[in-house]
Amino acid sequence: MTTATPHSGVEDPFLSLLGFIRQDFGQINMENLQPEKRVELAKYFIQRRRADVKDWLGTTQFPDREPLEVSFGLSAEYKQLFEDVYKFAREFVSSSDTQSGFRRRVRYWAALALLRCVMSSPEAAKIALLARIKPGDLGDQETTEQDYYPEVFDTTEQDKATDVVPTNVIQEGETTFPENEKRKLREFAKRAESLTGESDTKIKKASEEIRKIIREGNQPIVFCRFIATANYVADELKKNLGREFPDLHIMAVTGEKSEDEREILVSDLCKSRRRVLVATDCLSEGVNLQEGFNAVLHYDLPWNPNRLEQREGRVDRFGQIARVVKTILLYGADNPIDGAVLNVLLRKAREIHKSLGITVPLPVDSESVMEAVLKALFLHSEDGTQLALFNEAPVIEVHRKWDRSAEKEKKSRTLFAQHAIKPDEIVKELEATDSVLGDPQTVARFINNSCVRLGSPLYNSLSYKTLDLTRLPEEIRMRTDLGQVAEIAFEQPEPKGVLFIHRNHVLTNVIAEYLFNESLDNTRKNRIVTRCGVIRSKEVNELTTLLLLRLRFLIKDPGEETGSMAEECMITGFRESSGTRYWFSKEEAELLYQKALPSANLTEDEKIHWANIVLNGFSKIKPELNALVEKRSASLAESYEHLRKTIKTGKVQVSPILPPDVLTVSIIVPVPKV
Question: Which residues, including other chains, have CB under 8 Å from residue 563's CB and lie 6 or more apart?
């Protein structure tokens, strides 16, 4: 069981997961873990940080994250609107003292959501203020507190995430509204609508930062909380940046579109040379954006530190070719809500991440934290801009728990780091797998050599190769559907816009199948591949034969009657000297297969002569081929036995199926000595 986020920060759910592995693990005390229990748990539970992967079995390239904070001051008009709405919100929160607990809490959330929308953007403010005029109906039993959490707070559960303006909770169950209140709200909405352009210092500061990022040659993502804000930001950025960057493509992608539509929109945007993606949190999880973007600006601060990491993790991940990923928190210097979020949650999260190199989730619900902290906004202060939230008891308690959780995580990383994984054994198994399936170098050599024979050699560029598909056979062009020209690479991370060609890529599969079919078709003339070939090469001193074999094995798990079939290909061979055969090792045969190139010409009659000598003697080598397959079968059984001891399963039986299939015969004749 593998997960990128193994620990939510809350102990009970984590222990429950461990209990799936072994029942007694669900009762473990992780703080006071006894040595013998630690050793036992380490057999099943391994934690790996990016730092563990980066320098393990070679070097894996990851970007460095450069976190920045950028502030802006509200314009006089916007500041006045905030203060007026804040005063209005305090009044209707105070008027709920006589209501029941549930309705009172919802009214408080409505005030909080209203202020958040006002500080998000003029568009979100207008929608929220007008929604306040319309009465809603909470119902008596249908609606629960949890139903409103996704609208007010930032849940990290994808199925509950929402990016619409929270009109339901803002309406908060009123049946009637005084006319003077409606008039005041309409006036607020009208003022909000006029606060675009020069009066909106937030979008002006965001435009400045995006301008810097683009001038540096980077491609940013701008994350917003609401759909209305994202669309507004995209439109304003087009106005502010379009003249300087006429080729800049700016697009808003939000929850208005389906998941498939969002994927298509992002893919189309990535084709532009200069691009800015404005998105809501519908793209903050489960989407890889590192190939198209390399910077993040948080236009609206997330109210959940896990959401912050999810957003930045879209670009700060493996496959990002930029060495540095810039992430910017944009906040209002005179916005008390932004101040609370920054000081209570986000700065603390970044401090822990910088110290440990990992993200330690908040050890309590972020919704509860923000609710406790921001209540001070309405209950303790008459002036929303003069808050002393950060010495509040809830904040001190949250930070104490978070520090304790971080310390436990640090200790846990020490206890359950990758010590249970033995690198030498892993390398051995990886090399064995690559030798059967093909490593990147093998794939590159196959595609290069095949394309030369097919009449379309690859053209080298600095970090990739260019393939002209118009010169390949029509069958390959039709089945790969890669267009006329493709830029390809065989190593990751590949450059932006370049196709990574691996052993399972459609290009590899189609070319392999095309060549294999041609080698079996005896009706074709002038075939570029055959199952038997003869060359004269200076790489050998005696007549040498290389064979490509298909080996098959029957593998049975304990208690299984029929078993399953497995197969692999192997290169082997021998040289003959004075009537004696000397078989090559696997490594010697593979090296010679790569190095042996024609050094002199052979006539057709000479090729037929040497081919007959080798093929007519095949009956003599069949016992030796069978012995080779049996040896390989024993080696596979040994690998299965090692795996069995690791995961504690029954013994696996591996039986060879004889004789092996001879797919190709390559005959190498020495160059005559003069």
Answer: 554, 555, 556, 557, 653
